[in-house]
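BUG: 3D viewer hangs when loading the predicted structure for this chain

Environment: internal workstation, default settings.
Expected: structure renders.
Actual: progress bar stalls at 90%.

Input used:
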Amino acid sequence: MAINHRLRILLCLLTFKTGFSAEISVVVQTGNSVQLHIQTRELPEFDDLSWKNDKSEIIVRYTSETKRVRLHSSYKDRVDFNDTTFSLTLKNMQKTDSGLYTARASGESDNNIVTYRVSVIDAVEAPVLTVNSNWLSGNFCTVNFTCRAHELMITSSYQNNRCSPEETSTSSDNHTLRLSCSCDSIICNYSNPVSWKTDTEKVNKLCTVNLST
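Structure tokens produced before the viewer hung:
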């Protein structure tokens, strides 16, 4: 699983548009930054361009004639505004920052250019892979184990150089717990849209320990 460890942002375009406005879903990890782009090359002529949140706070207002940029007092240390591309970067995102962010151009008419639905979520904690039992019978090593993370759990067994099943997963609220096996490893992976962590056991080590006892 390849996830960008710097920003780890998931973008998912929704399927509806109204005029210039298109809603885009963004998931960002708590404490990270997120950049919101205009998403169109052709903007209508405007006098002012603003970014606002769903609390009716105007985060930034840009005046075309004077090139003046005005920031909301509560965002002054948390945003960067690009007065060329009109993109907005929000820093140190917290869960309370989740919500809608809209770019709006005002002139002879008002147009919502783009709306982002931003969700701020925590990185996952490491899962726990627990060996319930392991034994050697003839040439076969059998290992029973449980993969667990929060409310999710998978139980499986390893025998004859394979797991049954070889790969399985369970999900809840955008969190996925996945269990997979190779010929020498059991891997428990826990992930969400912004992060992932694993716990691994070497089968040969488990079987060797059992054989020596």
